[in-house]
Design goal:
By secondary structure, this protein is α+β, with helices and mostly antiparallel strands. The chain has 12 helices and 47 strands. 16% of the residues lie in helices and 36% in strands. Helix 9 runs parallel beside helix 10.
Length: 945
């Protein structure tokens, strides 16, 4: 799944039912020898391609045999705590830094408002988030915390002040470079304050030093630039009381993909936060896109765009009213995975213009200007201690620079610029070289070129970051606990994440198929040697699924070095990622497939072999890239066919049919082409998701005709749009096209648009801290992610079940509005309740007041009707007037009401599928909070779909 490509993530339950009873048992007959699948023309058939046609319909069991941090619970990286020490107002604060969930620091007295814990980080360190975990000591959380930083332990600056939370209190603030951090508990409570662990994080944000800003008004003595100067004690102020229309606009100087912005009004002006705020992005400072909106309630506000939004300009608007001025002390804009390089000091031992490696253009470069010889260096001073685990070099595509990769390298780290340690050694790869290592803090890093070659050593762009991907997880676990200890942690996760009961859940939907994403680390150690028992879980899932009448597609979801640039391919990296330039990694992958083919040759329960998940050499793949990819596919195809001539081979047509050769080019037979359509930036736009489905369905006849092989939609998500999901799967079924929705489980909450695709979701338990939690804590934490601790996404499961049963029809029957009447809790002046039921774009009903929760809109349909789906949409010109949360209730008499659905709207048009029921009355209650009025352009009710 390609969440990290564009990015992602976002607590009310949406259309859910908590698991309260054992799962249903599967009723399908077990798969036998006669069920062996092979391609026959553009369909799959049993009896090795001569029997009945089979349309595979199922789900993915992602996050089980490979880590994807947004979905599975194997953890996140925090700042390296080596060299840290702690003091406190009382107790033994060292227990808050020992990585153990069974120890704690505690005040040993009820909270009085004067407790504190202070951490000395040893040297100036960059961080912008803090977590305080009291999960194992329920109720002993800080009622309010003030977070301060200091360079000398004497002068302190407050960077955040907020209420605590039982479990994990997470505080986000503007980036700080400091040696000391102090957390003070400032409230009173009849409970202890206990801290199991305290951690800092450096989430990637842009460095503001190169940005400029303007504002609609500025107080004397302040300037807009004071909100971008890195000093939380200096403040821009509006110089006037808050009124709607005040703006603050940042010019980033270049186009950037952004997904969040944090703005802090400052400690001295903490009450000057905007009462209502809106955020916009723009490419030209003229046409702006509205990306976030909300109420201000504290000095620190983080606006989440729920998907990356591009632009050069970012505008924050204050649209509320207050006697207070509007003030901003600091702003932090989230973007991508890499550290922002503004402020880096870059030097080299040879060549000119080393700064070119950080100018956001591969077209300019630093180069040695001479043949490669041992000892050439490129060095970086990042200005502060930063925890990182990856450095990448990249060059310009289709240029001679592609061959100027280092023929050998050492990567060295230093905290002080004089004492260096080598953390990685290797050989570079054509065009791009990614250098991973165990996460650790450093201020300096340098690449030492150790090879010899006639080519120069050239770098177009140099990036670094702290990446959370499958490789980095395994690398850290192995370094900390050894290979056996790492496997213990992984086994604990896998044993909890997927059980026989989960396979019962899947089978109970009527699905006949699961795609099983598997990481290459399941088979091999990091050095490429084989693990002693790599087959246990794979054998188990194939046997268990087969017994329930479900096929398994073996999906090699990650390959060594990464087959694409985002984390779901196992390793975040450049274009091309490390796999495509490494003969060693390609050999390892071929060996894995030879072993798989040998083990499962003849196994009817295996639907086939998915050779590489989402293979992508470059975002702008050209003919050479496609040829390279297809040539390697052919190599794997030949290796498998030499052992197993019968199993179907699945090949990724990613991002489309033009990204892979035709089967006739290589003589491939018994193959399936696989597609993964997503539109993540427009997750909240029903029209965009519907258009995606229209495009895919319209293109199927041509794809099925040429190249004339079966098709699998191996992954996809259409977010909260039950109708669009239905139309897509019905259309696929109608043309005998196979599908596996993404995905069975997601730990995210129900109000996260990137979680709705989970059949089970909403597990808020804390995840491990990869580089500091001890082994026992790891095992304890991952054990809380069994499905019993999740919530079933009941309506999504019902939608999947309908089409898993084979339905090929999506024919929604809308109930005629004739005779309908409507009433509401309030109505804006000039509007009418009839405006919500008089047809799209005719007129609208509006509440006439900001959404506060409790507003309702009631429809009397005149007589009892069968209700299966209710769609609520806002006018095209008021797309932010959607209800932030809803309860949908039905009644036959207008007095006694039954709740049919509860959830969030997630965008201007929200189709709500329900269990078909008889009702005359519908009542939609708005349950969220937002500064906009609630507006309804049209309510559509379907009796079936």
């Amino acid at each position: 799944m390609k969440k990290k490509m564009i990015v992602a993530a976002f607590v009310a339950a949406a259309l859910v039912a908590t698991i309260t009873s054992p799962p249903m048992k599967a009723e399908a007959a077990a798969i036998g020898a006669s069920d062996f699948l092979k391609a026959n023309g553009a369909v799959l058939k049993k009896s090795s391609g001569t029997g009945a046609t089979v349309n595979l319909r199922g789900t993915n069991v992602g996050g089980w045999l490979t880590q994807e941090d947004w979905m599975s619970p194997l953890g996140e990286f925090a700042a390296d705590r080596v060299g840290w020490s702690a003091t406190a107002s009382a107790g033994t604060p060292g227990s808050a830094l020992d990585g153990s969930s069974t120890t704690r620091w505690t005040t040993s007295a009820n909270q009085a408002g004067s407790e504190w814990i202070r951490v000395d980080l040893g040297a100036p360190t960059l961080f912008n988030r803090l977590s305080v975990d009291n999960s194992n000591n329920a109720g002993q959380y800080p009622r309010n915390i003030n977070i301060e930083t200091s360079s000398d332990g004497v002068a302190w600056k407050s960077v955040g002040n907020q209420p605590g939370a039982d479990g994990v209190t997470s505080a986000k603030f503007s980036p700080q470079v400091a040696r000391y951090v102090r957390v003070s508990q400032t409230a009173t409570a009849g409970a202890l304050w206990s801290v199991g662990e305290i951690n800092l994080f450096n989430d990637p944000v842009l460095n503001n030093s190169t940005h400029t800003a303007t504002a609609s008004g500025t107080a004397a003595g302040t300037t807009p630039g004071l909100a971008l100067d890195g000093d939380v004690a200096s403040v821009w102020q509006s110089g006037a009381a808050q009124v709607p229309g005040q703006t603050y606009t940042i010019d980033l100087g270049r186009n950037v993909d952004m997904d969040k912005v944090l703005f802090d009004s400052g400690a001295a002006t903490a009450n000057d936060f905007p009462r209502i705020w809106d955020v916009y992005t723009s490419y030209d400072n003229v046409a702006f896109t509205h990306v976030a909106s909300g109420y201000g309630t504290n000095r620190v506000i983080q606006a989440d765009f729920q998907g990356a939004k591009g632009g050069r300009y970012l505008r924050i608007a204050s649209n509320g009213t207050s006697a207070q001025w509007w003030s901003i002390a600091e702003i932090a804009i989230s973007s991508g995975n890499n550290l922002d390089r503004a402020g880096w000091a870059i030097t080299s031992s040879v060549g000119a213009a080393p700064g070119n490696v950080a100018d956001n253009s591969n077209g300019t470069r630093w180069t040695t200007g001479a043949a490669q010889t041992n000892g050439q260096t490129l060095s970086v001073d990042m200005g502060a201690l930063i925890t990182l685990n990856n450095v990448t070099t990249d060059t310009d595509k289709n240029s001679s620079d592609e061959q100027d990769y280092p023929r050998g390298y050492n990567l060295q780290l230093s905290k002080n610029g004089s004492t260096w340690s080598t953390v990685a050694s290797g050989v570079g790869t054509r065009k791009a070289t990614t250098i991973p290592f165990v996460a650790q803090a450093a201020r300096y890093f340098r690449i030492v070129q150790t090879g010899t070659a006639a080519q120069w050593w050239s770098i177009g762009e140099l990036t670094a970051g702290l990446y959370n991907d499958d490789y980095s997880l395994n690398n850290s676990l192995t370094s900390r606990f050894g290979a056996a200890g790492a496997q213990t942690v992984i086994n604990a996760h896998q044993d909890a994440w997927l059980t026989a009961g989960d396979l019962d859940n899947i089978a109970a939907t009527g699905m006949n198929f699961i795609r099983v994403p598997i990481g290459w680390n399941t088979f091999l150690n990091l050095d490429g040697t084989w693990k002693a028992s790599p087959w246990t879980k794979i054998d188990w899932v194939i046997d268990q699924a087969s017994a329930r009448g479900m096929y398994v597609l073996i999906d090699l979801h990650t390959v060594p070095g990464g087959g694409c640039p985002w984390g779901s391919c196992g390793r975040i990296g450049p274009n091309p990622n490390g796999f495509w330039g490494s003969a060693t990694y390609q050999n390892w992958t071929e060996d894995i497939w030879k072993a798989i083919a040998t083990r499962y040759n003849g196994n009817a329960g295996v639907a086939g072999y998915d050779l590489i998940n989402e293979p992508l050499i470059d975002y702008g793949e050209d003919a050479d890239d496609v040829a390279q990819k297809s040539d390697y596919y052919d190599r794997l195809y030949d290796a498998v066919r030499a052992i197993d001539s019968n199993h179907t081979i699945f090949l990724g047509a990613f991002f489309g049919l033009n990204a892979i050769a035709s089967p006739s080019t290589y003589g491939w037979t018994n193959v399936v082409y696989e597609y993964h359509p997503y539109d993540m930036p427009n997750s909240k736009d029903w029209t965009a998701q519907n258009q995606l489905v229209s495009n895919e369905l319209a293109g199927l006849p041509a794809k099925l005709s040429n190249p004339g092989v079966p098709i699998l939609y191996g992954e996809y998500s259409l977010y909260y749009n039950d109708d669009v999901w239905s139309r897509f799967m019905a259309g696929l079924n109608a043309q005998s096209v196979s599908w596996s929705a993404w995905t069975y489980k997601v730990k995210g909450s129900a109000n996260d648009g990137f979680a709705y695709w989970g059949m089970y979701y909403n597990n808020a338990n804390p995840v491990p801290i990869i580089n500091s939690d001890d082994s026992a804590t790891f095992v304890s934490k991952v054990g809380k992610f069994s499905t019993a601790n999740f919530t079933q996404n009941a309506r999504f499961v019902a939608t999947l079940s309908k089409y898993a049963a084979g339905s090929a029809s999506y024919s929604p029957v809308a109930i005629n509005h004739s005779g309908w009447t409507a009433t509401a809790s309030s109505t804006a002046t000039g509007a009418s309740t009839a405006g919500g039921i008089d047809g799209v774009n005719a007129s609208s009903w509006s509440s006439g007041q900001a959404m506060a929760g409790g507003e309702w809109y009631r429809i009397d349909m005149g007589s009892n009707k069968t209700v299966a789906m209710v769609t609520v949409q806002t006018p095209s010109g008021s797309t932010w007037d959607y209800p932030r949360g809803f309860d949908l209730q039905t009644s036959v008499d207008g007095t006694n009401w039954t709740t049919a659905a509860t959830g969030i709207a997630y965008g201007w048009k929200r189709p709500i599928s329900i269990t078909p029921t008889t009702a005359r009355y519908l009542r939609i209650t708005q349950t969220g909070v937002a500064p906009q009025w609630w507006t309804i352009d049209e309510v559509t009710v379907n009796s079936s779909y």
